[in-house]
């Protein structure tokens, strides 16, 4: 890749870096049996293992028969009980609506896998605080969706020993899922040889787009096909700003120019951190300080130029809202697939133009944002794994939990796409947080823009060569905490063009004063060790 393309890519990904994701292997404890009882215990354990293996084999055979023929199965044993917990993703639901979906789910699971499911759904904030706490307390929770951040994230839950290794569970109870998923998908959730979750299987395309108001672009004399680079975007800013100096040329919430938490990684892999980079486009494995790279400095100069010319929202440091509804904002950047970045969406009631500026690259961070996992609180992990398998292979179950009951919670529009009843008793917007999203029919809006994620060629998605590497911050926990504080203080300044040269240097000096070198050295050591094992 040329220097100019690297600079453009860095510029476009300055504000796509996610919060640190860390992971390490579970810590196991052991005890020595009494000498007089060890023999009997071993015999009982052997019998129990044999009986469990026979039961698993019988259940697997019956499940396979049910999946292939679609006929009901007469089960010899009582159903297993599985509690499945997830969260409301900015939608709506009532307990009556949830119960109706739960009843319909059990019509499927009791017949196919002899599992009775209890569905629990919490609001987002409650899920983030309660789910990890309940798992830690040993409450009966058998299947979960990990949360994108904090204590409920995949990395945090692995790091705290709250997720079960799934290798044998998947082999014995979810072989269909293993056959379905590309090998590198599970590499992202494999730590020290153990699979701890299954990433949501969806369109992981992570290209970077620039979106703007179509009317202003046309008024300034430009068309979508005229924009192919950051230089072109700058030219558009100059023309539109001349016509409308009252407008903010680009903005975003959360102290970043990009709304999306996705990270394209076309030039570097951040390793799930806010401060580091490995320049994978150069086939390098050296861990460097991102904010000291020449690519960042040259790209930041463009951001700084935008800010000094008045193009960047002056309130970007303090705004936490979604500026796409602000009628004084002209454009923003967004990473993702066509459904997420299509220009037919409306910004403040106006049509948008969407231009792809950069091919994306999927990193470990992207793949572990949303996963399906079995926590250590599961009382029947085998049954939970069978339910997990249906989440990735059974369209009826996936459609049901994602959209509810057909005719009540959703219908099919004139164009054949799904239309959700957003005011009904079940519309929690859970499609993307569990299982296999590719099983579901497209929405009416997706049909309108000609997008069907089921038709996306997954083999064309570009993955980072470091997929599956996690930073274990245990040896550098003090440094990580101190550096996080420094980054939070300067984030908006150094990622949105607000910092002058002296402030940028002050930021870098503070990073080193708070342990950046030790942090980098430890991450490099871990990466080198991981690479030797590949």
Please explain how this structure is put together.
Helix 1 (3-13) crosses helix 11 (294-308), helix 3 packs antiparallel against helix 15 and helix 6 crosses helix 14. This protein starts with a helix and ends with a helix. It has 19 helices and 18 strands. With 534 residues, it is α+β, with helices and mostly antiparallel strands. Helices cover 41% and strands 14% of the residues. The radius of gyration is 25 Å and the shape is globular. The protein has helices at residues 3-13, 38-69, 95-112, 124-137, 154-159, 167-173, 175-180, 183-187, 214-219, 230-243, 294-308, 338-341, 364-367, 381-393, 395-403, 444-448, 477-495, 501-513, 516-533; strands at 80-88, 92-93, 115-123, 143-145, 190-191, 194-195, 198-199, 207-213, 248-250, 276-277, 288-289, 329-336, 346-347, 350-358, 371-373, 410-412, 418-420, 426-427. The model is unreliable at 1-59 and 259-266 (pLDDT under 50). The strands form six sheets. Strands 3-1-4-15-7 form a five-stranded mixed beta sheet.
Short description:
With 534 residues, the chain is an alpha+beta fold. The chain contains 19 helices and 18 strands.
Q: How many DSSP-defined strands?
A: 18
Mean pLDDT across every amino acid position: 83
| Low-pLDDT runs | 1-59, 259-266
Structural class: alpha+beta
Strand sequence of the main sheet, in spatial order?
Answer: 3-1-4-15-7
| Amino- and carboxy-terminal Cα gap | 26 Å
How would you sum up the global shape?
globular
Helix run count: 19
User: Sheet bearing the most strands, described?
Assistant: 5 strands, mixed
Instruction: Round the Cα radius of gyration to an integer and report it.
Output: 25 Å
Strand proportion: 5-15%
Q: Percent of residues in helical segments?
A: 40-55%
